[in-house]
Amino acid sequence: KDCLKTETIGKEIFYFKEVNSTNSVAKFLAKNGTDDGAVVLSEVQLNGKGRRGKKWESPSGGVWLSIILKPKISPSKASLITLATGVVVAKTLKAMGVDAKIKWPNDILINNKKVCGILTEAHANYKSVDYVIVGIGIDTNLNLDILPPIIKEGTTSLKKELKKDIDDNEIIYTFLNEFELMYEKFQKEKFEDILNEWRLLTQTIGSYVEIKQPFGKILKGHAVGITNSGALIIESENGELTKVISGECAIKTN
Ligand code: BTN
User: Fold this and answer.
1) Architecture of domain 13-201
2) What is the ipTM of this complex?
Protein backbone atom coordinates (compact mmCIF):
# COMPACT_ATOMS: atom_id res chain seq x y z
CA LYS A 1 0.00 0.00 0.00
CA ASP A 2 2.81 2.31 0.98
CA CYS A 3 4.43 2.60 -2.43
CA LEU A 4 4.17 4.22 -5.81
CA LYS A 5 2.45 2.06 -8.43
CA THR A 6 2.31 4.57 -11.25
CA GLU A 7 3.75 4.58 -14.75
CA THR A 8 3.55 8.26 -15.62
CA ILE A 9 2.78 10.32 -12.55
CA GLY A 10 5.85 10.56 -10.34
CA LYS A 11 8.04 8.58 -12.73
CA GLU A 12 10.45 11.42 -12.14
CA ILE A 13 10.41 13.16 -8.79
CA PHE A 14 12.42 16.32 -8.12
CA TYR A 15 12.86 16.64 -4.39
CA PHE A 16 13.98 19.84 -2.66
CA LYS A 17 14.51 20.90 0.93
CA GLU A 18 13.62 24.46 0.08
CA VAL A 19 12.38 26.34 -3.00
CA ASN A 20 10.42 29.53 -3.58
CA SER A 21 7.47 27.70 -5.09
CA THR A 22 7.19 24.17 -6.47
CA ASN A 23 4.84 25.56 -9.14
CA SER A 24 7.56 27.96 -10.36
CA VAL A 25 10.16 25.18 -10.43
CA ALA A 26 7.73 22.90 -12.27
CA LYS A 27 6.96 25.61 -14.81
CA PHE A 28 10.67 26.07 -15.50
CA LEU A 29 11.17 22.31 -15.89
CA ALA A 30 8.10 21.96 -18.13
CA LYS A 31 9.36 24.68 -20.45
CA ASN A 32 12.72 22.96 -20.64
CA GLY A 33 11.46 19.60 -21.80
CA THR A 34 10.63 17.72 -18.61
CA ASP A 35 8.12 14.97 -19.32
CA ASP A 36 4.44 14.55 -18.61
CA GLY A 37 3.89 13.31 -15.07
CA ALA A 38 7.04 14.64 -13.40
CA VAL A 39 6.55 15.77 -9.81
CA VAL A 40 8.26 18.55 -7.85
CA LEU A 41 8.22 18.27 -4.07
CA SER A 42 9.66 20.57 -1.44
CA GLU A 43 9.79 20.40 2.32
CA VAL A 44 9.57 24.18 2.62
CA GLN A 45 8.44 26.90 0.21
CA LEU A 46 9.81 30.37 0.84
CA ASN A 47 7.33 32.01 -1.48
CA GLY A 48 4.44 29.59 -1.88
CA LYS A 49 1.73 30.87 -4.19
CA GLY A 50 -1.98 30.77 -3.49
CA ARG A 51 -4.82 31.66 -5.80
CA ARG A 52 -5.47 35.28 -6.78
CA GLY A 53 -1.89 36.31 -6.04
CA LYS A 54 -2.11 35.43 -2.35
CA LYS A 55 0.81 34.00 -0.43
CA TRP A 56 0.54 30.36 0.65
CA GLU A 57 2.19 29.71 4.00
CA SER A 58 4.48 26.72 3.48
CA PRO A 59 6.79 25.96 6.39
CA SER A 60 7.76 22.35 7.02
CA GLY A 61 4.76 20.31 8.14
CA GLY A 62 2.86 20.15 4.89
CA VAL A 63 2.88 18.39 1.55
CA TRP A 64 3.81 20.98 -1.09
CA LEU A 65 3.96 19.46 -4.54
CA SER A 66 3.42 20.23 -8.21
CA ILE A 67 2.73 17.89 -11.09
CA ILE A 68 3.82 18.67 -14.64
CA LEU A 69 1.19 17.56 -17.16
CA LYS A 70 1.36 17.64 -20.91
CA PRO A 71 -2.07 16.30 -21.84
CA LYS A 72 -3.21 15.99 -25.41
CA ILE A 73 -6.54 17.70 -24.89
CA SER A 74 -8.24 20.83 -26.12
CA PRO A 75 -7.41 23.97 -24.07
CA SER A 76 -11.09 24.39 -23.22
CA LYS A 77 -10.90 21.21 -21.13
CA ALA A 78 -7.75 22.19 -19.24
CA SER A 79 -9.67 23.90 -16.43
CA LEU A 80 -11.34 20.58 -15.61
CA ILE A 81 -7.96 19.31 -14.37
CA THR A 82 -8.40 21.47 -11.29
CA LEU A 83 -11.78 19.94 -10.47
CA ALA A 84 -10.40 16.48 -11.16
CA THR A 85 -7.50 17.14 -8.79
CA GLY A 86 -9.95 18.14 -6.08
CA VAL A 87 -11.61 14.75 -6.51
CA VAL A 88 -8.26 12.99 -6.15
CA VAL A 89 -7.33 14.91 -2.99
CA ALA A 90 -10.74 14.32 -1.41
CA LYS A 91 -10.50 10.58 -2.13
CA THR A 92 -6.96 10.46 -0.74
CA LEU A 93 -7.97 12.16 2.48
CA LYS A 94 -11.07 9.98 2.86
CA ALA A 95 -8.77 6.96 2.60
CA MET A 96 -6.87 8.42 5.59
CA GLY A 97 -10.10 8.42 7.58
CA VAL A 98 -11.36 12.01 7.46
CA ASP A 99 -14.60 13.29 5.97
CA ALA A 100 -13.14 15.51 3.27
CA LYS A 101 -15.41 17.62 1.08
CA ILE A 102 -14.78 19.81 -1.95
CA LYS A 103 -15.72 23.46 -1.93
CA TRP A 104 -16.12 24.85 -5.42
CA PRO A 105 -13.93 25.37 -7.28
CA ASN A 106 -10.95 23.78 -5.56
CA ASP A 107 -10.62 23.91 -1.80
CA ILE A 108 -10.72 20.74 0.25
CA LEU A 109 -12.39 21.08 3.62
CA ILE A 110 -12.76 18.98 6.73
CA ASN A 111 -15.56 20.14 9.05
CA ASN A 112 -15.79 23.35 7.01
CA LYS A 113 -12.11 24.18 7.50
CA LYS A 114 -9.62 24.27 4.68
CA VAL A 115 -7.00 21.51 4.69
CA CYS A 116 -5.83 21.74 1.06
CA GLY A 117 -5.62 24.27 -1.74
CA ILE A 118 -5.00 23.70 -5.43
CA LEU A 119 -3.35 26.13 -7.84
CA THR A 120 -3.40 25.21 -11.52
CA GLU A 121 -1.36 27.17 -14.04
CA ALA A 122 -1.80 26.30 -17.69
CA HIS A 123 0.11 27.38 -20.73
CA ALA A 124 -1.80 26.92 -23.95
CA ASN A 125 -2.57 28.50 -27.29
CA TYR A 126 -5.94 28.43 -29.00
CA LYS A 127 -5.61 24.86 -30.23
CA SER A 128 -3.30 22.94 -27.93
CA VAL A 129 -2.00 22.76 -24.39
CA ASP A 130 1.76 23.11 -23.87
CA TYR A 131 1.74 22.20 -20.22
CA VAL A 132 -0.37 22.37 -17.11
CA ILE A 133 1.13 22.71 -13.64
CA VAL A 134 -1.08 21.41 -10.87
CA GLY A 135 0.07 22.62 -7.46
CA ILE A 136 -1.30 21.00 -4.32
CA GLY A 137 -0.76 22.13 -0.77
CA ILE A 138 -1.98 19.83 2.01
CA ASP A 139 -1.70 20.76 5.68
CA THR A 140 -0.59 17.49 7.18
CA ASN A 141 1.43 18.14 10.35
CA LEU A 142 1.36 21.92 10.10
CA ASN A 143 1.54 23.89 13.33
CA LEU A 144 -1.53 26.06 12.85
CA ASP A 145 -0.43 28.52 15.53
CA ILE A 146 2.19 30.00 13.26
CA LEU A 147 -0.41 31.04 10.67
CA PRO A 148 -1.66 34.64 10.58
CA PRO A 149 -4.83 34.74 12.76
CA ILE A 150 -7.18 35.44 9.86
CA ILE A 151 -5.96 32.36 7.99
CA LYS A 152 -5.69 30.16 11.07
CA GLU A 153 -9.38 30.60 11.81
CA GLY A 154 -10.53 28.83 8.66
CA THR A 155 -7.73 26.28 8.43
CA THR A 156 -7.18 22.81 9.80
CA SER A 157 -4.56 20.09 9.47
CA LEU A 158 -4.80 16.33 9.17
CA LYS A 159 -2.86 15.98 12.41
CA LYS A 160 -5.42 18.10 14.24
CA GLU A 161 -8.38 16.20 12.77
CA LEU A 162 -6.94 12.72 13.29
CA LYS A 163 -5.12 13.54 16.54
CA LYS A 164 -1.94 11.78 15.42
CA ASP A 165 1.21 12.44 13.44
CA ILE A 166 0.71 12.01 9.72
CA ASP A 167 3.04 10.07 7.44
CA ASP A 168 3.56 12.48 4.53
CA ASN A 169 4.93 9.75 2.28
CA GLU A 170 1.78 7.70 2.66
CA ILE A 171 -0.29 10.73 1.62
CA ILE A 172 1.99 11.43 -1.34
CA TYR A 173 1.93 7.84 -2.63
CA THR A 174 -1.81 7.44 -2.22
CA PHE A 175 -2.38 10.77 -3.91
CA LEU A 176 -0.08 10.06 -6.88
CA ASN A 177 -1.53 6.56 -7.37
CA GLU A 178 -5.06 7.98 -7.43
CA PHE A 179 -3.97 10.87 -9.61
CA GLU A 180 -2.71 8.54 -12.29
CA LEU A 181 -6.06 6.72 -12.45
CA MET A 182 -7.84 10.04 -12.81
CA TYR A 183 -5.37 11.26 -15.42
CA GLU A 184 -6.01 8.15 -17.52
CA LYS A 185 -9.74 8.90 -17.45
CA PHE A 186 -8.98 12.48 -18.31
CA GLN A 187 -6.89 11.58 -21.35
CA LYS A 188 -9.68 9.27 -22.49
CA GLU A 189 -11.97 12.31 -22.23
CA LYS A 190 -14.23 10.72 -19.65
CA PHE A 191 -15.07 14.18 -18.35
CA GLU A 192 -18.62 13.28 -17.42
CA ASP A 193 -17.39 10.52 -15.06
CA ILE A 194 -15.01 12.94 -13.38
CA LEU A 195 -17.71 15.60 -12.97
CA ASN A 196 -20.05 13.01 -11.48
CA GLU A 197 -17.42 12.04 -8.92
CA TRP A 198 -16.93 15.72 -8.16
CA ARG A 199 -20.68 16.15 -7.61
CA LEU A 200 -20.66 13.33 -5.05
CA LEU A 201 -17.77 14.83 -3.10
CA THR A 202 -18.77 18.49 -3.00
CA GLN A 203 -20.54 20.30 -0.24
CA THR A 204 -21.19 23.35 -2.42
CA ILE A 205 -24.08 21.99 -4.48
CA GLY A 206 -27.26 22.25 -2.46
CA SER A 207 -25.87 25.01 -0.25
CA TYR A 208 -26.72 28.68 -0.04
CA VAL A 209 -23.62 30.53 -1.19
CA GLU A 210 -22.17 33.97 -1.71
CA ILE A 211 -19.71 34.32 -4.55
CA LYS A 212 -17.33 37.23 -4.69
CA GLN A 213 -16.64 37.68 -8.38
CA PRO A 214 -13.52 39.20 -9.97
CA PHE A 215 -14.86 42.77 -10.25
CA GLY A 216 -16.18 42.86 -6.72
CA LYS A 217 -19.74 41.86 -7.58
CA ILE A 218 -21.37 39.57 -5.02
CA LEU A 219 -23.78 36.94 -6.19
CA LYS A 220 -26.04 35.22 -3.65
CA GLY A 221 -28.20 32.17 -4.09
CA HIS A 222 -28.46 28.41 -4.05
CA ALA A 223 -25.76 26.45 -5.81
CA VAL A 224 -27.81 24.02 -7.89
CA GLY A 225 -25.27 22.40 -10.16
CA ILE A 226 -22.14 22.47 -12.21
CA THR A 227 -21.84 22.72 -16.01
CA ASN A 228 -19.79 20.42 -18.24
CA SER A 229 -16.99 22.96 -18.19
CA GLY A 230 -16.96 23.27 -14.41
CA ALA A 231 -18.90 26.51 -13.96
CA LEU A 232 -21.10 26.72 -10.88
CA ILE A 233 -24.82 27.31 -11.47
CA ILE A 234 -26.45 29.67 -8.97
CA GLU A 235 -30.20 30.12 -8.58
CA SER A 236 -31.01 33.48 -7.06
CA GLU A 237 -34.10 34.34 -5.02
CA ASN A 238 -36.11 35.31 -8.11
CA GLY A 239 -35.37 32.00 -9.78
CA GLU A 240 -32.81 33.40 -12.19
CA LEU A 241 -29.94 31.05 -13.07
CA THR A 242 -26.38 32.36 -13.41
CA LYS A 243 -23.24 30.47 -14.41
CA VAL A 244 -20.10 31.46 -12.51
CA ILE A 245 -16.73 30.60 -13.97
CA SER A 246 -14.55 31.87 -11.15
CA GLY A 247 -14.77 33.62 -7.83
CA GLU A 248 -14.45 33.19 -4.10
CA CYS A 249 -17.21 31.04 -2.69
CA ALA A 250 -18.51 31.30 0.87
CA ILE A 251 -20.98 28.69 2.05
CA LYS A 252 -23.65 30.11 4.35
CA THR A 253 -24.75 27.60 6.92
CA ASN A 254 -27.95 29.27 8.11
C1 BTN B 1 -5.04 28.22 -2.77
O2 BTN B 1 -4.93 29.46 -2.72
O3 BTN B 1 -5.96 27.64 -2.19
C4 BTN B 1 -4.07 27.40 -3.59
C5 BTN B 1 -2.86 27.02 -2.80
C6 BTN B 1 -1.88 26.15 -3.58
C7 BTN B 1 -0.61 25.85 -2.81
C8 BTN B 1 0.29 24.88 -3.50
S9 BTN B 1 1.63 24.33 -2.47
C10 BTN B 1 2.43 23.60 -3.84
C11 BTN B 1 2.22 24.52 -5.02
N12 BTN B 1 3.28 25.52 -5.11
C13 BTN B 1 2.82 26.75 -4.88
O14 BTN B 1 3.52 27.78 -4.85
N15 BTN B 1 1.49 26.72 -4.65
C16 BTN B 1 0.96 25.37 -4.77
Assistant:
1) 2-Layer Sandwich (3.30)
2) 0.99
Decide if 13-201 and 208-252 have a common fold. no
Residue nearest to atom 3 of ligand 1 (CA): 117
**CA-CA distance, 78 to 186, in Å (whole number)?**
10
125 pLDDT higher than 90: no
State whether the Cα torsion 175-56-62-32 is positive or negative. Answer: positive
Q: Report the first-to-last Cα separation within the chain, whole angstroms.
A: 41
Q: How far is the CA of 117 from the centre of ligand 1 (A)?
A: 6
Domain extents in the chain:
13-201, 208-252
Q: Render pLDDT for 188-210 as a digit per residue (tens, 0 to 9).
A: 999 999 999 999 999 999 999 99
Taking the centre of ligand 1 as the mean of its atom positions, its distance from the CA of residue 64, in whole angstroms, is 7
d(CA 157, CA 203): 19
- Record: fold of 208-252: SH3 type barrels. (2.30.30)
Closest Cα to residue 66, out of 5, 28, 25? 25
